[in-house]
Amino acid sequence: MRKLDPALQDYASIIEKLKPVSKSEDLDSVLNSIASDIPKPKRFLIKMELKRLSSPCKIRLDLRGHVDGICREYDYQGITHYLDDVGVKKFEKGIKIFGLYSTGVYEDVLNAENNYRVMQQRQKNPSRPLKASTFTEEATSSVQYPAKAVLFGNRGVRVEERMIYAIAVDIELGISTIVRAVTTDLSVSGCRLKINDKYPLEKKQLIYLQYTGLEKDFALGLKDKIQYEVVGIEKKQGFIYARCKRTYDVTTDSFDDFLDNFINGNKRRYKLNLDNTVDAVITKGYEQFYLPRINSLPIFINENEQGEYNAAMMLSNDNNKHIIRHWLNESNVNCLGQLLTDKRIKDLKQKPGRIKEGLLYCFTHIAKGRIFFYSATIDELNQSPELKTLYLGFGANKPNWMVYKIQLIDIDPNLSFLPLTLPDNASEEAKKWNKPPSARVMKHISQLRYVALLSDFSDEEGQNAYKNTEIDLSQVNKLQVFGHSKSEEIPLVEDIAIKYVNLRSETRFIYKTQVVISSDLFDKTGITRDFSSSGMQIEFPESLNLEKSKIIKIALPELQKISSKFKLKNLEYEVVGLNKAKTVVNLRLYEQRGTNHIGKQFFDELIDKNISRLKTTNLGHVIPGLAEALRNIYAQRVLNTGFFVHKQGIRHDLKTIGYSHIPNPVVDLLSTESSETEHSLYILLRQNYLNSFIINMLRRLQRHSKPLYQDLYVRCKLSESNEKDRFESILAHEIRNEAARKIFIQKSIQPKMMFFSLRVYLSRTGRPDTEFIAKELAYVSQYAIHKAKSLEEELWSVTGVGDIIDNTEETMTRFNFPADKIEQQLKLRHEHS
């Protein structure tokens, strides 16, 4: 049995991912996209291997006596094979992947898990890749916890309408070879043909068509046959299905006009091929659920003419805007630009892999009314263990302690154009809708080279872990090296709000001003983060003895100085939310029936008079089309993993995940070997976790609630093939204490084992953003109302959106594991992804 070339052994997972597109015209672009960091000679070998695997095969498979199973006859395209149940599944899955009985299918069947030769090799070498096994019936993830995948940013763009239409044609394959065939669909510039598979037909072959069926009823005015090029071939059930495009070797304006009018006049009668548009509606619908609820902050990085990098723009939403607020100084100026310096971006670029990852530890120190920011990367801290201990121990004792994961991925401004999947000839407006971003937008983003994704891992539990570090306070002045300059100009980072249907009742504005709150037990002074006519969010330097629904009174001393009309004292507000540390409080005005709340009157007037100067929490983009351009770029560079909870009646399901084509170890952890789009949610849903974990969080969420999260620990035994033995997952809070958690991690990083710590966020959704998919949905409705209704029902049933972020490095750092052990785990997951 042929083994994979040793030179390609390290790229086996990439070859596996590319199998479904091995016969596609887009193979080169997809390969270059996901393997850009692999040397060109190796990419060429990968491409040759894919061509070998996708080449047609005529060898009869006979597994009798070679597998642990009962074999029976299995006929396929005139060849009788002898396969057992496992072999049949492998064979049929291979046909779906490659589109034909190919060398890859043949080898996959012979490499089934129950093959005696394979089992013997396993005993000699028990290590195996990360993918979950799907070969056995017992505990098979694809059966027990299946999930379909939505590939964010993927659009099957079609330049014109294709009508499902069968008409007789004659194909001239050579000087004396005329073959009768039929079309299965038809457009002005192409067609799909159905032809008996005994006739030779190859990709890139030139053929000539005579539309004999049309000529019986219409005068086509053609002097010669029409030349086509075969661009794709699919074989099934004794027939070849060939996708062909016109070469336009000669001008046939009258025939082109005839086809255009013929299709336009009959598309309601014969139906259009809507597959691309239907797929796009699904993809865009799920994108628009996920992107406005991502918990990480995408920051777009410019490169100037001198090769220097700077943070230029950030894509904000309700779930990630708290990261932006953390970086407002005493003058309400955002200082994030000082965090992502040119040196840090360049240091990050030197890390291995396409996605560059690291950790950032930050805190603020307040003195004489001024806010001083401090930040350090984990690599900077690791250069001096003593300074690292001092920094983490001192910083964690500050109220505004911030821990971030940073991920850096390359981008191209051209990714900003994601056209509709409507063909240009679908309507008069289609061409207008399919226009790329304006020249003004393209100029504004022309220097973008990377997107840095900041994920906030700050929480009370982690902060307490770092707090316990013993430090020498006499050495604190050494931390000045990590302080941000107060004298240098602060780089501007544009806050661009992602465009989506906003279900909030009113606009909130970012503004810092002093607030004094009073209750029966205390008077405390805090600073507002934002306000609206009906409420505000306030941050305090220490924890408050407050509970939800408590009625408190507030005073606004600084705002009182600019208003003599309103008395801004003893204003009653209700506590409607607190963070875990009880240092951030959400207030809503408490208005007794028949009274006009002074606070509401004041803020209404303040907003009305200063609307042009106030910054909203969802800032409107200055340049039309800029927010959509940045959204399109990030949709194709999503680095985390989304999931979607559906509700049908009283039943909840979690069977859909979403990600981009960028390499993702979490997606690999969920993957099966059956196909590129089949996944197992075993680690997320085992032990009734759907109800006790996911749905339990969902029930505690309202539409406007901040997302909830839990940390999930996963142990992967690389030597095990059975899923129940291979994976062990447990919620961190289910492990009795910190010491026991560290022991779990310690046992999970032994040889031939991997440890994952996954932070699983969940947000409740509102209604789907149907405006975003309205054009495609209306197009589908014209020709297949049942499909449009089914699509709408699927999207309306989404009730929860999740975000899975790998926080393994931070978790292991928090538990004080050595840097080399952490690096070993990070390297191991990339080897198996």
Task: Describe the 3D structure.
It holds the Pfam family PilZ. Residues 503-582 form the PilZ domain. This protein is an alpha+beta fold and 833 residues long. The chain has 5 domains: 6-129, no CATH class; 163-271, predicted glycosyltransferase like domains (Thrombin, subunit H, Beta Barrel); 296-497, no CATH class; 509-614, predicted glycosyltransferase like domains (Thrombin, subunit H, Beta Barrel), CATH 2.40.10.220; 638-831, no CATH class. The chain contains 30 helices and 32 strands. The strands form 5 sheets. Strands 28-3-27-26-32-31-29-30 form an 8-stranded mixed β-sheet, sandwiched between helices. Strands 14-13-15-16-11-12-17 form a 7-stranded mixed β-sheet. The longest helix is centred in the N-terminal third of the chain and has 18 residues, at 253-270. It starts with 11 loop residues before the first helix and ends with a helix.
First CA to last CA: what distance?
A: 25 Å
Give the overall shape.
globular
Poorly predicted spans: 127-143
The strands making up the biggest β-sheet line up spatially as 28-3-27-26-32-31-29-30
What Rg is obtained from the alpha carbons, in whole angstroms? 30 Å
Strand content: 25-35%
Helix content: 25-40%
Q: Please, what is the average pLDDT?
A: 85
| Coarse structural class | alpha+beta
Individual helix count: 30
User: Into how many domains do the coordinates divide?
Assistant: 5
Instruction: Describe the largest sheet.
Output: 8 strands, mixed
Give the oligomer, counting copies of the same chain as homo and different chains as hetero: single chain
User: How many DSSP-defined strands?
Assistant: 32
